[in-house]
Amino acid sequence: MAIIPSDRSIIPSCDVDSLERLKELVEATGDIEEIGGYKIGFTLVIPFGMKAVINTIRMLSGKPIIYDHQKAATDIPDVGAGFMRACAGADAVILFPAMGPETLKAWVAAAKEENMPVIVGGEMTHKAYLAKDGGFVSDDAPEKMYSLAAKLGVADFVVPGNKPERIAHYKRIIESCGISPTFYSPGLVAQGGSAAKAAKAAGRRWHAIVGRGIYDAPDMRKAAAELAKALKQ
Predict the structure, then answer these.
(1) I need a labelling partner for 179 at 20 to 30 A (CA). Which of 51, 122, 149, 227 fits?
(2) Has residue 20 been placed in a domain?
(3) Mind listing the pLDDT tens digit for each residue in 156-166?
(4) Residue 191's pLDDT is what?
(5) Cα–Cα distance for residue pair 210/229, rounded to 1 Å
(6) Residues 110, 81 contacting (CB under 8 angstroms)
(7) What is the predicted pLDDT for the residue at 81?
(8) C-alpha atoms less than 13 angstroms from C-alpha of 26 in its C-beta half-sphere
(9) Which residues contact 105 (CB under 8 A, 6 or more apart)?
(10) 68 - beta bridge partners?
(11) In what order do the strands lie in the sheet with 156-158?
């Protein structure tokens, strides 16, 4: 079953600093048809708690809530089960399994035990991430993360929206593993990515994750509506 029912949507990244700001964001965008769900992270969950954050959204919207620990699956395999239990109430979690294949396998297994859908990321949007760009992560590590996740049955993946050529590359790798992927892309608007180009590279099932481009806009509703136009291109 798909995490987001529609093939394409906008997912506001709720990296705001208060429940009041979260409420404003959901109120401004919740009835826009192209809004597919909401992504929450540590800026809200650490100070206010998972239940309070989820309840704030649920008072205004029934759309899926995705928890992004920024970044999960960067610990030992054994703690995956506790992490998944702590995420109860969310509709999916994002994992970036940089700690290796055993962590990825254990955390995906733990998610299945808790009936928690997972979205796996490998390459990030910022500079100096991969070794060839001056980063710490080996150049082929994302390929290994995506392909192993696909072999484990994962069908949902985070790919960098400001690198459409990399989206196309990872799409081919995942499809070669027998998976028809659904993609989720940050790196748009504030980080320079084009929603239209990312959507074209990703194919039919693609969701734009947008944070500052919506919640820092003078008119959040207008900003979300403008982004939604790119979904139709």
Answers:
(1) 227
(2) yes
(3) 999 998 889 99
(4) 56
(5) 14
(6) yes
(7) 96
(8) 26
(9) 77, 148, 152
(10) 94
(11) 8-12, 206-210, 182-185, 156-158, 118-121, 92-95, 65-72, 38-40
Please report whether residue 3 resides in a domain: no
Is the residue at 34 inside a domain?
Answer: yes
Residue range(s) defining the domain that contains residue 71: 8-230
Q: Which amino acid appears at position 203 of this protein?
A: G
Phi (first) and psi of residue 183, to 5 degrees: -110, 150
Beta partners for 39? 13, 66
Q: How many domains does the chain have?
A: 1
| Residue type for position 21 | R
- Among all chains, which residue has been given the structure tokens 């990312």? 198
Look at residue 2 and tell me if it is in a domain. no
Q: Which of 81, 76, 128 is nearest to 99 (CA)?
A: 76
Per-residue pLDDT tens for 58-114? 999 999 999 999 888 899 999 999 999 999 999 999 999 999 999 999 999 999 999
* The one-letter amino acid at 30: G
* Domain harbouring 114, CATH code: 3.20.20.70
Q: Return phi, psi of residue 182, to 5°.
A: -110, 130
Yes or no: say if 117 and 90 are a contact pair by the CB < 8 Å rule. Answer: no
CA distances for 78 relative to 104, 107, 136, angstroms: 11, 8, 24
Q: Are 11 and 57 in contact (CB under 8 A)?
A: no
3-class DSSP state of 16? coil
